[in-house]
Amino acid sequence: MAQALRFECQAGCTACCRQQGFVYLSEPDLRRIAEFLGVTPAAFEKQYVYRTRKRLRLRVPRASQCYFLGEAGCAIHPVKPAQCRIFPFWPELLESRREWRKTARYCPGMNQGPLVHIEVAREQAREMREAYPEMY
Ligand code: SF4
Ligand code: SF4
After folding, report:
1. 75-to-72, 96, 99, 106, 128 alpha-carbon distances in Å
2. Which residue minimizes the CA distance to atom 7 of ligand 1?
């Protein structure tokens, strides 16, 4: 990877929220989102979360990729899951130019805007690894 990358999320874009795939949650994500929504963690989990032995993920509605994606963007933006907040500085994207390029085909913010030093991006990737230790 180069020593710096460019990234700037584009106003009004929700392309990453509309990709196929699951949104995983950490336990702190679950508690933060429940608090933001004014419900108990148990009530939030019952309605929106699918828990396996090792992982938590948001349930996927029939008509879209995410229950929280609305006309105005993410309804839980201030407390969105680590995976959403850290994108596109996911370890797998930083470790592979090919994956970075492939992802940039749907994310118009990648390779745009100010330079982000590679160490800053790697710090984000570390946070991702810590949030989802079972995935890395
Ligand atoms: S696809 Fe990229 S530019 Fe669009 S909302 Fe997601 S991060 Fe921002
Ligand atoms: S939680 Fe928010 S940012 Fe994450 S996929 Fe859903 S709408 Fe997008």
Report:
1. 8, 31, 28, 21, 21
2. 9
pLDDT digits (tens, 9 = 90+) for 71-80: 999 999 999 9
Nearest listed ligand to the Cα of residue 106: 1
**Number of DSSP helices (H) and strands (E) in the chain, helices first:** 6, 7
Please give the structure tokens belonging to residue 126.
Answer: 């570390």
**Confidence (pTM):** 0.94
Q: Is 82 in the pocket of ligand 2 (CB under 6 A)?
A: no
Which phi and psi (to 5°) does residue 49 adopt? -120, 140
To 10 degrees, what angle do helices 27-37 and 41-48 make?
100
What pLDDT is attached to residue 1?
64
